[in-house]
Design brief:
The complex is a heterodimer of chains A (131) and B (553).
Chain A lengths: L4 E4 L3 H13 L4 E4 L2 H10 L4 E5 L7 H11 L4 E6 L4 H9 L4 E4 L4 H24 L1
Parallel strand pairs in A: 1-2, 1-3, 3-4, 4-5
Chain B lengths: L3 H74 L2 H5 L3 H12 L3 E7 L5 E5 L14 H9 L1 E3 L11 E10 L2 E10 L1 H7 L9 E5 L30 E8 L2 E9 L6 E5 L2 H93 L2 H4 L4 H29 L7 E3 L1 H18 L2 E6 L7 E3 L1 H19 L3 E10 L4 E8 L6 H4 L19 H11 L3 E6 L5 E8 L4
Parallel strand pairs in B: 11-13
Antiparallel strand pairs in B: 1-2, 1-5, 3-4, 4-5, 6-9, 7-8, 8-9, 10-12, 13-14, 14-16, 15-16
The chains are: A alpha/beta (131), B alpha+beta (553).
Chain lengths: 131, 553
């Protein structure tokens, strides 16, 4: 099963490397450098999992999260916080994020969380289709 | 804080000022009252003396007047022939003596100075002629005469009163001799006190009565020259170098000066009493004021020192708090900025690791080296991450939760984490818990972090072989739970003691400690409303004292 991933982060090097690492694992990743760009992409396509940096210039991660939840309630979001702030992570969780990962993240951990988020999304989608 | 010499100066200044302001009015008051009393007393003494002198003068004048009147009455009621008949003079004299024992004799002298009749003990003077005597011509001229005291033919101190009567062309004189002892008894009296004195002086300063002290009768007594004056005068006259207050009055009937000398010791007794009383009161007042002043200034200074110290402590704690706050902000900023590059480094290393799995790279002779290098990069990124995460944790503004916490349980649990490490280093952890310790409304997880930090530090400080004592107890006012953690380590040098809670201050080797453990502990305890202090002396170990408030607000 292909997981459609959107990676939102303003650090170009980070996005680039992450994209490469996902690709080498046969997981296509679309990337966005800002919240606005991400929301535009989400309007166009249906992503399974969004990896969203909390602290970005322009629109802040939590605001992006809110809008994603409004547009695509089934899309799972994993918050990426460099702000260590459990606060921000917690706040994200309360806004409906699937989970959060502290920067600098362990790639395997992130990968694991992405897989599980995708599974939940699939479950939710089929539940909705049945119900 | 003011140094101790400053306090000493302040204390001396306070004591001197207070003493000055209290003692000067006291002294002025004492002096004024004493002066007033002295003046009033002296006035009273003078008044008393004047009164006494006046009274005595009247008595003596009255005495002389009476004698004179008596003789006048006798002389003018009978012809001279009457007295010359038989024993008439004798019986008159007996009658006079019956009234006054001081009459010595009585005689009648004709105009030629011949003693024509005499009655008295001195029969030898019966035939004496007085024509040449001074008093004889005086009595002829004035009609009466009172003499000074003299020894005369009788060789006994006496004085005479003579009265002359002109009867046609004849003149005769009635003369009485009076024992001058009468003056002694008239002048002296017990009103004079033990050392007072009184006497009569004639115009030439010759004593006419016996003084109690000093020269004898008829000797000279030099009080100075006093022109005749009316009334009473008081003078201070030096006798034998000592000043005496003397009351003076001239008699009306005779040019004699009555002098009454007061008893100086008796006169000054009340003054001396007052003076000693005043000194006693002044000394008592001084002691009281001095004692009070010293007591008050000590109390004030102690208060001052205490408030200075409290202020200094408050300042120190405020400084520490604001230092923490600004450092927290800075640390969070720095940590965040470092986290992003760290994330990239980590991902790059991860990417390299991904690439190493490719077939051709695996065949490279340097494969092992590359893998090793990547592992090292990842390890050190993780290490850096630990630091930044702790920094962010320190800066994190997370509201502590409030639950009922049994401090003893939290400490016991913390000890179990460290028990193995301690046992391995032969360190014994002793606990002395108050068993009925009240629950504290606090955050057990955060408290555990604090205890962990401190006990871990204690173990590190001891190194090997030692003891850690942990005690808990509840105190009142303020209601707090006190936790003391005491180690037997080398202690903390004085100059490092106030830096111990500063961020990045560490005595551990590079790489072993971040220098954040106590900083975080401090900030946690502060957020929980408590206090953390450290007491230590070099070589005596260190004691951390944590106090947590019991009330839930």
């Amino acid at each position: 099963m292909d997981i459609k991933i959107l990676l939102v982060d303003d650090e170009f090097d980070f996005v680039e490397t992450m994209t490469k690492r996902f690709h080498i694992r046969k997981m296509p990743v679309t990337s966005a450098a800002s919240g606005m760009e991400a929301l535009k992409l989400i309007d166009e396509q249906d992503f399974d999992v969004v990896i969203l940096d909390v602290r970005m210039p322009g629109m802040d991660g939590l605001e992006v999260l809110r809008q994603i939840r409004a547009k695509r309630p089934l899309t799972e979001v994993i918050m990426l916080t460099g702000h260590a702030s459990l606060d921000a992570g917690m706040q994200g969780m309360s806004l409906g994020a699937y989970d959060y990962v502290l920067k600098p993240a362990d790639f395997d951990e992130l990968l694991d969380k992405v897989r599980r988020a995708a599974e939940r999304k699939a479950l939710n989608v089929s539940a909705q289709a049945r119900g | 804080m003011i140094e101790s010499s400053g306090y000493t100066k302040l204390r001396i200044k306070m004591i001197l000022t207070t003493l000055g302001f209290s003692l000067i009015p006291l002294l002025i008051l004492g002096y004024t009252i004493y002066r007033q009393f002295e003046a009033a007393h002296t006035g009273k003494v003078i008044q008393h003396l004047s009164h006494l002198t006046e009274n005595k003068r009247r008595t003596i004048d009255l005495f002389l007047n009476e004698r004179l009147s008596q003789l006048m009455a006798i002389a003018y009621t009978h012809q001279v022939e009457y007295f010359l008949e038989g024993s008439t003079l004798e019986s008159v004299f007996t009658l006079m003596q019956a009234r006054s024992k001081y009459y010595i004799d009585l005689g009648i002298i004709d105009q030629n100075g011949n003693h024509v009749a005499y009655t008295g003990p001195y029969q030898a003077i019966r035939t004496a002629n007085y024509k040449e005597e001074e008093w004889f011509s005086q009595v002829q001229a004035k009609g009466f005469y009172i003499s000074d005291v003299f020894l005369g033919r009788r060789n006994y101190p006496h004085f005479i009163i003579a009265v002359s009567r002109r009867d046609g062309d004849k003149t005769w004189i009635l003369r009485a001799t009076i024992d001058s002892d009468i003056f002694d008894s008239l002048v002296q009296s017990d009103q004079l006190g033990a050392n007072g004195d009184a006497f009569l002086l004639n115009a030439d300063n010759v004593l006419q009565s016996k003084p109690r002290f000093g020269p004898k009768l008829l000797a000279r007594m030099d009080l100075g020259a006093f022109a005749r004056f009316t009334g009473v005068r008081t003078e201070t006259i030096a006798v034998d170098g000592k000043p005496f207050l003397v009351g003076l009055a001239w008699l009306e009937n005779k040019n004699w000066l009555l002098a009454i000398r007061d008893d100086p010791s008796e006169e000054m007794m009340p003054l001396a009493h007052t003076r000693s009383l005043m000194w006693i009161i002044l000394a008592g007042g001084f002691l009281l004021i001095a004692g009070g002043t010293i007591l008050t200034s000590n109390t004030i200074l102690a208060q001052l020192v205490r408030s200075e110290r409290e202020k200094a402590m408050l300042n120190a704690s405020l400084t520490q708090s604001s230092k923490m706050a600004s450092l927290g902000k800075m640390a969070a900023g720095v940590a965040h900025e470092i986290n992003n590059p760290l994330a990239i480094i980590k991902e790059k290393a991860g990417w390299m690791r991904d690439l190493l799995e490719e077939e051709d790279v695996k065949a490279s002779p340097n494969y092992k080296e590359l893998e090793d290098a990547i592992a090292k990069i990842e390890y050190h990124v993780t290490r850096a991450k630990d630091v930044t995460h702790r920094l962010l944790g320190f800066a994190r503004r997370m509201d502590p939760i409030h639950e009922d916490v049994n401090i003893n349980d939290v400490i016991n649990q913390t000890i179990t984490f460290l028990q193995n490490e301690a046992r391995y280093r032969a360190i014994e952890i002793h606990t002395g818990f108050q068993t009925d310790l009240p629950f504290v409304a606090s955050d057990s997880a955060q408290l555990q972090q604090v205890f962990l930090n401190i006990i871990d530090n204690a173990i590190d400080a001891i190194g090997k072989d030692g003891n850690i004592h942990i005690r808990t107890m509840a105190v009142h006012d303020p209601n707090e739970v006190i936790i003391t953690i005491k180690d037997s380590g080398p202690g903390i040098p004085r100059e490092k003691l106030d830096k111990i809670f500063d961020p990045f201050f560490t005595t551990k080797k590079v790489g072993e400690g971040t220098g954040l453990g106590l900083t975080i502990s401090f900030s946690i305890i502060q957020k929980l409303g408590g206090q953390i202090k450290v007491e230590s002396e070099e070589g005596q170990g260190a004691t951390f004292i944590i106090s947590l408030p019991l009330n839930k607000d």
